Amino acid sequence: MSVEKDSLPSPPPPYPYPYPSATSVQPLLITVDTSYINDYLPWSIVNLLCGWGFFGIIPLVFSIICRNDKSVNNLSGAQTMSKLALVFNILITIGGIIGWAIFIILIPHYISTLHPF
Length: 117
Description:
There is one protein chain. By secondary structure, the protein is mainly α. It has helices at residues 41-50, 54-71, 75-114. The protein has a domain at 37-117. The longest helix has 40 residues, at 75-114. The model has no long low-confidence stretch (mean pLDDT 85).
């Protein structure tokens, strides 16, 4: 049995048009306006100096995390950290004022007991 040359299927005709070029798709970037969210960083720095050291670090950390969340457009995280920074700044400010007032009132009394005149 011989196979004739004409009985084999012929290859398809060449593609008449140029091949379609590959197109690149850009990712969809959604930017959220986070400028209205306050991070209370200056207040946190003041509390670091006047809020008895260790306790002043707490609102500072929340303020820095809030600023970081704002830069990466994490709206819910920035709002949460902003509220926490506000609450702890209020608490540390009130505690610092009360603490410094007690310190100022008690220091003269303590000094007078050490060195009576």
